[in-house]
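Async update (no meeting this week)

Hi team, since we skipped the sync, here's where things stand on the single-chain job. The sequence we agreed to prioritize is pasted below, unchanged from the tracker. I ran it this morning and attached the output directly underneath so nobody has to dig for it. Comments welcome in thread, and please keep replies under the output.
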Amino acid sequence: MVEDHISALVTKDPNKLKVYTDEYDGHCLRAYSYWTSLMPDITAKLDEIHKKGKVYKVTYDDGSIEYLNENNPKLIKLKESSNEGNSSN
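Output:
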């Protein structure tokens, strides 16, 4: 919405500006802020990336993307299987 864009520029609110600078979907952010309890999958993903440690972007063969913390067992298993495939016997 034009009004949201103008508001972000006028107020210089960092959270409003992120919608444009980081290409967030403002409608989704607003919906999540109102109905967080109805979106446990999103909350779980946010909890995952906010854990202590480095976060990795994992792109799967089907094109889907997931962000996993370095301590996530799923990422550790992916790294191990990747290393097995890269080792020369």
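Quick observations from my side:
The mean pLDDT is 84.
Residues 29 and 51 are 21 Å apart (CA to CA).
Reply here if anything looks off.
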